[in-house]
């Protein structure tokens, strides 16, 4: 095969629960749904607006664990965006051939 390896694109998917979720994802979503159910059972609602407000924890946590192409889920995407904007922007060369480069002043 000319010393080439073929790795399937979804090789890590078998390590996920239902092929999409990590245990942390399910814990986050479970906490949001539990909190929503507790509010629905304990608080009497009269309007659709109040009902929508009580459903927001489950909707927000569901949105966070929703799979996104090229990333694991929305939480991972938001974390990468945050790291990009908060980490340093100037990178210093420290490669294996540092001796080949003249020292920068």
Look at the helices and sheets and give the structural class: mainly alpha
Q: Give the overall shape, derived from the CA principal axes.
A: elongated
Distance between the termini: 49 Å
**How many individual helices?**
3
Number of strands: 0
Radius of gyration in whole Å, from Cα?
A: 23 Å
Which percent bin holds the helix content?
40-55%
Low-pLDDT parts are none
Query: Strand-and-helix sequence, N→C?
Result: HHH
Average pLDDT reading: 82
Characterize the largest beta sheet: strand count, sense, and whether it forms a barrel. Answer: none
How much of the sequence is in beta strands? Answer: under 5%
What would you say this structure looks like, in words?
It is a single chain. The chain is 48% helix and 0% strand. With 105 residues, it is mostly helical. The longest helix is centred in the N-terminal third of the chain and has 20 residues. The radius of gyration is 23 Å and the shape is elongated. The termini are far apart. The mean pLDDT is 82.
Brief write-up:
Helix content is 48%, strand content 0%.
Index terms:
about 100 residues; mainly alpha; about 50% helix; elongated
